[in-house]
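Tokens for chain A. Residues wanted.
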């Protein structure tokens, strides 16, 4: 009977001590540029309101009519997240446009800057362009933007460093 207890204690000790000897991962979170995106809040300069409000009474801008394309005409994946309008019970949508990096050739070993244009189609009549310029680098935990710059109407509207996501606000004229 003692040999069974000894054997049981030996296996229990081995099992528990193996858990404490695991190597702690060096990276808390892996950064992957293929999942990079711009999160955009759109504001209409004429009304001062969010363009993509959750409840839209007669608005010209509906989230389902927004389309984004690359230079070659390929559609871009859009995601929608709700944010509450401050001091109200209403919400608006932040539009996620991604991915900024399309393939591994966008991650430059020599530090070359890359750029990408996104063509926005708000509705059947209105169109716009966002341009991004970035340097991407590989890290031990994946890949990140050394920097990401976002231009709207040839004006810099956002600069981001060591990240995979950029949050910007576009006030549409």
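Reply:
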């Amino acid at each position: 009977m003692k040999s069974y207890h000894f054997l049981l204690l030996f296996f229990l000790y081995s099992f528990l001590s193996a858990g404490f000897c695991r190597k702690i991962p060096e990276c808390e979170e892996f950064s992957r540029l293929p999942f990079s995106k711009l999160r955009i809040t759109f504001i209409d300069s004429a009304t001062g309101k969010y363009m993509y409000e959750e409840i839209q009474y007669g608005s010209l801008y509906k989230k389902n009519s927004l389309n984004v394309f690359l230079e070659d005409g390929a559609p871009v994946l859009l995601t929608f997240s709700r944010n509450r309008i401050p001091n109200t019970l209403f919400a608006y949508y932040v539009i996620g446009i991604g991915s900024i990096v399309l393939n591994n050739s966008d991650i430059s070993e020599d530090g070359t800057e890359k750029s990408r244009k996104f063509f926005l189609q708000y509705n059947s009549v209105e169109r716009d362009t966002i341009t991004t310029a970035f340097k991407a680098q590989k890290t031990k935990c994946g890949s990140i933007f050394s920097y990401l710059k976002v231009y709207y109407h040839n004006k810099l509207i956002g600069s981001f460093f060591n990240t995979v996501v950029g949050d910007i606000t576009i006030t549409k004229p």
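The chain has a mean pLDDT of 82. The radius of gyration is 24 Å.
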